[in-house]
Amino acid sequence: MIEIQNKPLERCVVVALRLGDQTITQVQEYLDELSFLVETAGGVVIKRFVQHAAEINPKSYIGRGKAAEIAEYIVANEIDLVVFDDELKATQQRNLEAEFKVRVMDRTGLILDIFAAHARTAHSRLQVELAQYEYLLPRLAGMWTHLERQRGGIGMRGPGEREIETDRRVIHNRIAKLKKELAEVDAQFRVQRKNRYNCLRVSLVGYTNVGKSTIMNYLSGSDVLAENKLFATLDTTVRRIAAEGTRFLLSDTVGFIRKLPTQLVESFKSTLDEVREADLLLHVVDVSHPSFLEQMSSVQNILVEIGAGDKEQIVIFNKIDQYRNPERDPYDISEGADTQRTLDELQQMWFAKEDNRCIFVSAALGINMNALREMLFKRCAVH
Ligand SMILES: Nc1nc2c(ncn2[C@@H]2O[C@H](COP(=O)(O)OP(=O)(O)OP(=O)(O)O)[C@@H](O)[C@H]2O)c(=O)[nH]1
Ligand SMILES: [Mg+2]
Question: What is the pTM for the complete model shown?
Fold first, then answer.
């Protein structure tokens, strides 16, 4: 059995529907991301299932034939957990668990579980717990009643590895209490932020794992945790930067993801206040990621959702050291043969598009980071 720190990894399969005109590549990229989420949560993906369908089955999400095929695979391969790349309705989840006889989770449940495992401060723990219970409440009926509950498994963890409560009445009380406690913490933070009103405020924002904390550390000399994990950062860190005629506050905060659960956006409102109140956003992008354009638009959508869509932005294209230039066949004139650009072409295109309000760097290797610092200092210069 595969183990990490003596803890056996849960054996998972991931499942996605390919709907309408979605391409196979697109669905595979979604499943790459879902697999990374599973790994971050302490699981290992043994197999992927994709079904091409015209529509979602209201009872079981996927078609009956596919469900039977997966059920057979689960028994033959000792699978512990099935994760779907979309939000499941309570009935769909229940029906699937009845058929598979193992736990079934959706993308939202998985993201919440990772947030629970990574929450370190009292503030983020409160926010995560609230989001988990808001998610759980409509799904409680019949949940896990036919399954032996697995203690501490993926999807069963609250903040601080505590097991989550599943009694409806207790949850209602807990939600009310959490909301009250959060309101108190928010009031404290509001007072703290008031002291910052006369200072220029700059916020690092972006998709998860793109290098926000690495850039924060580089620019401010602090040591925010930066690792190859999704959602390593859950709290907002603010650092004062003063040098060479410049003075501003720089903040690093929680990363975003495609289909970020609404419960999380809602309960992380106060963590995201720093972004909402910022004068300038540094939108960090992992340009080496095949879906970086889609990630940029996910980030933009969430910024709009939290009321920060119109703010001034500088785009930082990070991880250029990892960018793979396409190997082009000069004689290939077929359609799509040159859709992937070289780093040079990409830079030219974005400089023109963003009117030079973007920069290409490698935070890890320190490439172009002095230029970033200069650009930022110039923008934030005290007049
Ligand atoms: N190759 C390469 N890796 C980088 C670069 N910048 C950051 N990384 C790595 O990318 C991973 C994520 O970096 P973080 O700084 O934690 O990213 P983040 O955006 O703060 O991520 P979350 O807080 O989890 O949302 C780490 O393993 C970094 O070492 C870069 O320029 N090149
Ligand atoms: Mg981070």
Answer: 0.90
- CA of 147 from ligand 2 middle (Å) equals 36
Rounded CA separation 237/23 (Å): 39
Query: 89 C-alpha vs ligand 2 centroid, how far in Å?
Result: 31
CATH of domain 3-161: 3.40.50.11060
- Pairing outcome for strands 3-4 and 7-8: antiparallel
Sign of the C-alpha dihedral, residues 287, 293, 294, 296? positive
Specify the CATH number of the domain 196-322+342-379: 3.40.50.300
Please say whether the beta carbons of 271 and 123 come within 8 A.
yes
Q: Give the residue whose CA is nearest to atom 30 of ligand 1.
A: 319
From the CA of 284, give the closest atom in ligand 1. 19
Per-residue pLDDT of the chain (383 residues; tens, 9 = 90+): 444 555 678 999 999 999 988 899 999 999 999 999 999 999 999 999 999 999 999 999 999 999 999 999 999 999 999 999 999 998 999 999 999 999 999 999 999 999 998 888 888 999 999 999 999 888 876 555 445 555 567 777 777 666 677 778 888 999 999 999 999 988 888 887 777 767 899 999 999 999 999 999 999 987 778 888 888 888 888 998 887 778 899 999 999 999 888 888 888 888 898 999 999 999 999 999 999 999 999 999 999 999 999 999 999 999 999 998 877 766 766 655 556 788 999 999 999 888 879 999 999 999 999 999 999 998 888 65
Q: How far apart, in whole angstroms, are the C-alpha atoms of residue 362 and residue 218?
A: 11
- Ligand 1, atom 25, lies closest to the CA of 208
Tokens of 193: 């932020």
Question: What is the Å distance from ligand 1's center to 228 Cα?
Answer: 6
Domain coordinates in residue numbering, the chain:
3-161, 196-322+342-379
